[in-house]
Amino acid sequence: MRTPDRTRHPLLWVPTGYFTMALGYVMLTSVTAIMFKNIGMDNARAAAYSSMLIFAYTAKPLFAPIVEMYRTKKFFVLCMQVLIAVGFAGAGLAMSMPHWMVLMLALFVLMSFIGATQDIASDGVYVTSLDTRTQALYCGVQSLSWNVGPIVASGFLVYLSGRLHTEVFHHDPKVFGPDWMDAWRVIFFIVAAIVIVMAAWHARVMPDGARAENTPTNLRGAGYILWDSFVTFFQKRDVWKMIAFAFLFRVSIGMLEKIGPFFMVDSAAKGGLGLSNEQLGIIYGTWGLIAVLVGSLLGGMFVAKRGLKRTLFILCCAVNIPNLTFLAMAIALPSDAWTIAAGVIIEKFFFGFGSVGYMIYLMQQLAPGKYTTTHYAFGTGLMGLCMLVTGMVSGVLQEYLGYVSYFVAVMIATIPSFLATWFAPFHHDDGMGADSGVKAAAAANDPNVNHHAA
């Protein structure tokens, strides 16, 4: 059993470690979409460019064994955080250079792989530095800290971009174009400063992390483990039904992830609600995310009480049916901020409530076997792939259909989710065993539940 280093108490590095992970992830995969929209990019390109940055996080199970082989996990965490800080500062500087868009996109793609590597190493420090009891004890701290990242990035920093644009640089908030680069340059420098401070802090307080059991010692060993994990994964009973569930459950959410914020800030002439960045940051990036967290906690309690098999289809309804709020807002075009906030809160609350069932299903039905951790990562990778694919096509589809017809298409896209959920197989404990409460609580606290909430 591992004994925690008393000179490096988990409260010194777990909150800051997971906050830093989330800040980088959300800035790259969600906030960049708002930035692209602000500087005048059309919805198709803004959605596609920000969505492609999800790929590295989806593919990280493929290179995780290699990261585990060299140096210490803390070494990788510190190196990646320094590189992320340099990358955001570089993106800010690139905005004043010729061909700045090409340079910035190249930096973002590179930073997505660096961020995914940071995630692998940070999770490794947590798992190998703390014993099982301590891991469970700090699970809630870990999740809460991760979710502060989206609130800071999608909430405060988006809000601040709007304030800088109008009050510091004195530009028109209703006009999208190059003038927005002044505000976003400052935002990128702020993120770089935060991450470099976190790296300096972690250099002092983060433990090195231990080598996990069965860690490969060479590339051949890593390749064998990865191949064997693939083979055993596809040998699972009804694996294609489980793959269909893992990929299709969040199709409608993937279609809303980028377009939802675009709808909020687009003008009424384009069928949007005409919110400012300040309003978007408060409504979508703050109240919406808080609603996700509350929904996740209550969803975990609901599953723990009734079991997953009895509740999975109900949870699917919770994720998909409230998407009607976006269709209703696209038709009514409300101007009252409280009405808009209510629509967002309803959709996000039920998304959080229902998504818990998705993560528990991956834990209980898809993951068990020889490589439980790796197969769970495959499941979350399929979720990421869904968000990548839907994000890439969402902007093009929305521009072709317009917002009202697009949100009708989102509701049609819920049909595969219902079918995949209805036919999802149960070959293991359905959640009513003695450890059901633990699994439901773990899913409610799993950062993956809220990775795409913003």
From TrEMBL:
Keywords from the named record: Membrane, Transmembrane, Transmembrane helix, Transport
Keyword set includes Metal-binding: no
InterPro entries xrefs: AmpG_permease/AT-1, MFS, MFS_dom, MFS_trans_sf
Localization per record: Membrane
Pfam families assigned to the protein according to its UniProt record, in alphabetical order: MFS_1
Family annotation (PROSITE patterns): MFS (PS50850)
Keyword Membrane: yes
Domain Major facilitator superfamily (MFS) profile: 10-428
Membrane topology of this protein: Multi-pass membrane protein
Transmembrane regions listed in the UniProt entry: 12-34, 46-63, 75-94, 100-116, 137-160, 183-201, 243-264, 284-304, 311-332, 338-363, 375-397, 403-424
Gene3D superfamilies with a match to the protein in the record: MFS general substrate transporter like domains
Protein name: AmpG family muropeptide MFS transporter
Species, as recorded: Telluria antibiotica
